[in-house]
Amino acid sequence: MPEYINISVRQPYGVCGGIVPWNAPLFMIVNKVGPALAAGNTMVLKSSEKSPLPAILFASLCRKVGLPKGVLNILNGFGRPCGEAISKHMDIRKISFTGSVATGRAIQKAANESKLKKVDLELGGKSPLLVFDDAPFEKAVHSATFSILYNSGQVCMASTRIYVQQGVAAKFIEALRESIMQQGVPGDPALPDTKRGPQVDKLQFGRVLSYLDHAKQRGYNIILGGDKVGNKGYFMDATIVRDVPEDDKLVKEEIFGPVVVVNTFTDDEEEVLRMANDTEFGLYASVFTRDISRAMRVAKALEAAAVGVNCASPYMAIDMPMGGWKQSGMGGRAFSKHCLEDWTEVKSVFISL
């Protein structure tokens, strides 16, 4: 109406909470603290008990550059009581969490029971990688190798399910096997020649081994790896398992280790899309093909928040939003302008002239 001026404004939440995982602590700290503070909020940040030191270092750097006291507050400790306290605290208006689905559910429940605070969750993944007959072959092999070995497979968006079209399957699988073998065995990450390190701790190490034991008990075709490396530390063979039933837990569950399942598909595009989308997760997916029409068609059909065409995770771009579909997440997005907006609330103001 002409006698009114209506405007919308964005305002910070105020006090926010952040909970970061152990697998990429410094990256996750920057990813949460940066936009939250830039939008005008303060933050209480809990790091993982498995990797607490990056948060302490980050806080010391913030103090050196003159960040006022109370703007960033570091809380180290276990999920209970520390993470639970952040989730339930009545003065915290928003919480952002990256980690497992189970913990994400617990945080959502606690937040709902406090004051229905805004919750952003970035959770697990079981990312599919599709290789068609006309794929750029070397790029597909390299991308698949890097995706499953990066950070010793301890990445939520790792390409842990590979679907290869039958016409190129034998060649691709052998090339992938050779490519992974060329990366050598895991070792001390402090040494310059080491390409990948151990699993994070005994618990995670045992979890990955339990999946390998399952594969052996079922008689699945393990064409590479399948065991631990050495008798000291938590080092794991990179493992390729072929032709696993789609309803098996190796295909359905997030292993969080250097274990990849490789299955094949025929010329039926809908067939491979059904398999790729038959998952509770929707974090990242990849398609390798030289056919741009197919690439766009498949990218739209894949049920994932991010899709790589002739590239694979962990490729991201700082100007593109990242998040999750299905059980891989809910709420806001990381990176890009969407990230900054997600740390603010929208208010409508109606002015009568």
UniProtKB/TrEMBL annotation:
The keyword Oxidoreductase applies. The active site is at 122. Its EC number is 1.2.1.3. Residues 4-349 form the Aldehyde dehydrogenase domain. Gene3D superfamilies: Aldehyde Dehydrogenase, Chain A, domain 1, Aldehyde Dehydrogenase, Chain A, domain 2. It is an enzyme of class 1 (oxidoreductase). It holds the Pfam family Aldedh. This is aldehyde dehydrogenase (NAD(+)).
